[in-house]
Amino acid sequence: MTIAPDVDPLALALQPPPDETPQAREARLQSEREAKKRSDLIDEELTRERNAEKKSVKSVKVLLLGQSESGKSTTLKNFQLINSPKAFKAERASWRGVVHLNVVRSIWHILNALATAEAYTSSPHLLGPDDPVYPPLTPELLALKMRLLPLRQVEMALLDRLTHGHSGIKNEMPDDEPNLAEVSINSAMPWKNAFSRIMKNLRSSVDGPEANEAPDSREARELLYACAEDMVSLWNDPTVKRVLKVHRLRLEDLAGFFLDSIERVTALSYEPTDDDILRARLKTLGVSEHQFSLKAGNMVPHNWTVYDVGGARVPYFDCMHAIILLAPLSCFDQVLAEDERVNRLEDSILLWKIIVSSPLLKDANLILFLNKCDILKAKLASGVRFGQHVTSYGDRPNDFENCSQYMKKKFAVIAKQYSPEPRAFYSYFTSVIDSQSTSNILASVQDTVIRRSLGKNQLL
Ligand SMILES: Nc1nc2c(ncn2[C@@H]2O[C@H](COP(=O)(O)OP(=O)(O)OP(=O)(O)O)[C@@H](O)[C@H]2O)c(=O)[nH]1
Ligand SMILES: [Mg+2]
């Protein structure tokens, strides 16, 4: 038999026979009614099971807070690295452009310091007794400076690629000259596509990452590669080291420092490592979030949402199971970028005070990350005196152990004094660019948040 194309063969098969008797028809309808009843019962059972399953997945919300550059996005990257390693790796290529922008920015910092040194040394008669004494710049150094100016082109090409078609991504730099402003990004924009689009069909094992790249991006990378030797010479130049010292600029303490790895990160075949991604600096605007599912031991699975609030003060988020406040300890001698009258460590203390005393947040688990301990250690070892900036510290020993414990106690006392109700004080000394130690800390945080929230019946 042939069937016309617009006839449904199933409907045809289910059609009653043309010579059906009234009794046969009644029996057929009865049997169809029973079959439908059975089918409805099965559907109901399935819906019940699905709802029960949904209810058994608990939802946990965590908010990351802290001043700009405190390490919120880096902590979020660690959450991703631990809980969604595949997605993290898939975004690897997107970070290469950010690393390159970070390199160029560090070079601008050096050139800026050299320009200041040049201004001071060219008019010695104008200097007062308190003015800094810069060393004179050598002709080789001046030539190096000129040879590095094409980096501006590299920077523009990278920024173009990063901002292309996404109005939410903001470049704070004016067009006419390089300056030290940061590149920021609105987290609502899919900026990662801007870099990863060009990497889509990457055949890195065969052709290297540049194989399918857009010409403008390849040109920028080649230019950066061509400048690599000069950048290394600049960074290693003894006069530059002296100028930076007089300028009181420790580039290695600044966000997005890659100058000790110029050759590696400018190589044409360069792919950022996990460590590079954790160190890359891109300022966040707005709120970004990361969701993942966590299943520990015999526990029911938990859906986690971690919110990263770019540079924000205290936003009004309720229903948070935990707040992780990032307080960078190494910032004791720095002021806020947005307000030069405010010391960064004081600002973190104030933020902690506001959070612990908030009646709205009295049920949230508060977790303090005393962050950037690696930089604190290096800074103290380089001779910067803690007591000079934190005057209450006086002349206690200028070492990591004493300084960090002193600050921990300060935060603990505030928690005790200002909490509306007594609460546990969870604090960790962290260096969130170190993925190994951070993964252990985050595992412990995850465990604490689940245990305490279950105990308080807070999980939905
Ligand atoms: N050495 C060191 N660098 C860190 C540490 N934590 C964060 N950083 C770096 O500091 C820079 C700033 O960190 P982010 O995570 O971007 O800071 P943020 O709090 O998200 O800042 P905004 O987006 O401006 O709000 C990045 O380059 C990080 O790699 C740390 O413990 N040690
Ligand atoms: Mg951020």
From TrEMBL:
Pfam families: G-alpha. One of its GO terms (molecular function) is G protein-coupled receptor binding. Residues 1-46 are annotated as: Disordered. Gene3D superfamilies: GI Alpha 1, domain 2-like (1.10.400.10), P-loop containing nucleotide triphosphate hydrolases (3.40.50.300). One of its GO terms (biological process) is adenylate cyclase-modulating G protein-coupled receptor signaling pathway. Keywords: GTP-binding, Magnesium, Metal-binding, Nucleotide-binding, Transducer. SUPFAM superfamilies: P-loop containing nucleoside triphosphate hydrolases, Transducin (alpha subunit), insertion domain. Mg(2+) binds at T284. GO terms for cellular component: cytoplasm; heterotrimeric G-protein complex. Residues 1-14 have a biased composition (Low complexity). Residues 22-46 have a biased composition (Basic and acidic residues). This is Guanine nucleotide-binding protein alpha-4 subunit. The lineage of its organism: Eukaryota, Fungi, Dikarya, Basidiomycota, Agaricomycotina.
